[in-house]
Design brief:
Order of helices and strands: HEEHEEEEEHE
Shape: elongated
Helix content: 25-40%
Radius of gyration: 28 Å
Number of helices: 3
Number of strands: 8
Oligomer: single chain
Number of domains: 2
């Protein structure tokens, strides 16, 4: 190859370098914009038919929800001896999603205390999904048809309750 051919080849590469650099920068910018925009505006789809309530305590393998208080007459008749909570077993493979739709490990379940949550149970009756709801999500979700609530408080020691609200 002669010197003139090397000179032509060198100048062609030099002209293509800024174009390649520009294409690479535009591709990187576009990828960055897609990644940022996708997470910021993405709403989450909550499954229907979940049990909702406020967490009284949560320590793996049990989550306890506060029950709605019974009426005044029932409280007087029972002399205020009603069980104000109801417990549900939690599956070892439970998936917990916080308000930002991020997964939380089951070791952090105690942090769910006093939060409004939605529970989804599997076929074996154990809770396999826990969704921490924001105020707006909670207000919208409780109006959905098929939403389940913990049964009303009963007398302490009576056994009516735990299986009525945990079906899928």
């Amino acid at each position: 190859m002669n010197a003139e051919g090397l000179q032509r080849n060198f100048t062609a590469r030099d002209r293509a370098r800024p174009l390649r650099s520009l294409c690479a920068r535009l591709l990187a910018l576009g990828t960055l914009l897609l990644l940022c925009a996708g997470g910021a505006e993405a709403g989450r789809e909550l499954p229907s038919g979940m049990l909702v309530g406020v967490v009284d305590s949560a320590q793996f393998p049990v989550i306890t929800l506060k029950r709605p208080k019974p009426g005044l007459l029932t409280r007087i008749i029972t002399l205020w001896m009603y069980d104000g909570t109801i417990s549900y077993p939690v599956a070892p493979s439970v998936r917990i999603r916080n308000q930002n739709n991020l997964f939380v490990v089951s070791g952090l379940m105690p942090q769910l205390k006093d939060k409004f949550v939605a529970l989804k149970s599997g076929l074996n009756g154990e809770v396999n999904q826990i969704w921490v709801l924001s105020e707006a999500e909670a207000e919208e979700y409780i109006t959905r048809p098929g939403t389940l609530f913990p049964p009303v408080a009963t007398l302490s020691g009576s056994s009516a309750s735990t299986s009525s609200s945990t079906s899928e």
